[in-house]
Specification:
Layout: H1 2-33, H2 43-61, H3 66-87, H4 94-98, H5 100-120
Helix pairs in contact: 1-5, 2-3, 3-5
Length: 122
Amino acid sequence: MKAHVIVASLCRWTARIAGILLVVVLLVFAIGEGMPNLLTLPIWDQIAFLGLALIMVGILLGWRFELAGGIMALVGFSLVFISLFIGKGLALPGFFIALALPGVLHITSAVLRQHLEKHEST
C-alpha cells in the first residue's frame, strides 16, 4: 500500500508543477502575442481557444479537485485536438501534447487515492 501512496503523491505533485509551468507559458504567449478578437476568428480557432481555456482552468482546478480538474483539462485537450487535427488538418505540436499530461496525472492521482481510501476502510 505504501507504494500506491507514493505514486499518488508523485502524480499529484508532478501534475501541479507541470501544470503551473504550462499555464505560465500559455499566459506569457497570450500576453506577448496579444489576444485576437475571438468573434472574428474562424470556428476551428474559436474551438481551439475554448479548449485552451478549459485546459488552463482544469489545471488550476486540479489543485483542489483533482478528478474534476483532470477531466476538464482533458476535455479541453480534446477540443484542441479536434480543432487542429481534424478541423484544420494540422499535426499537434509537442507542446499541445504536453498539455494533456497534467490532466492525465490529476486523474491518475485521484483514482489511486480513491482506491486507497476504499481499501483502507475495509
